[in-house]
Amino acid sequence: MKVGIIRCQLTEDMCPGSTDFKVANEGTMAFEKTGPVEIIRFRSCGGCSGKKAATRAKMMVDRGAEAIVFASCMKSSNPIGYPCPHFAAIKGGAEKKLGPDTKIIDWTHRKP
Ligand code: SF4
How far is the CA of 70 from the centre of ligand 1 (A)? Predict the structure, then answer.
């Protein structure tokens, strides 16, 4: 499966996202059900309040992503200890924009 990952822009300057790539490559944690996945794009939400996220998700789907994954930095505040206050709206916006045919996974390596 090909996926696009969206993460918190606040973490972008400090976190290389290496654990996201590791669990995706291994098919572990959030990817236990899908098995190993190929990350075709790794982007941020675009900054608070995340209004670019749905459009970025749609563009990744248009370029081949079969699922959109929200990295654990968003919902579970890993590693900066600041859970996204806009996460429900961001996820809802992506669901509305992508429709029911695109799978959305809302964590990567730290269970919500
Ligand atoms: S909207 Fe949420 S995910 Fe995006 S930068 Fe702000 S806190 Fe992070």
Answer: 11
**In ligand 1, which atom is closest to the CA atom of 73?**
3
Residue of 36, 56, 34 whose CA lies nearest to 45: 56
Structure tokens at 30: 């959030």
> Does residue 86 have its Cβ closer than 6 Å to ligand 1?
yes
Residues 9, 30: Cα–Cα separation, whole Å: 21
Q: Is 27 left (phi over 0), alpha (psi -120 to 50) or beta?
A: left
Token pair in block for residue 112:
């919500």
pTM of the predicted protein model? 0.95
pLDDT in tens, 43-85: 999 999 999 999 999 999 999 999 999 999 999 887 788 899 9
Question: Rounded distance, CA 66 to CA 98, Å?
Answer: 11
Domains of the chain: 2-105 (3.40.50)
How many CB atoms within 10 Å of residue 104? Answer: 14
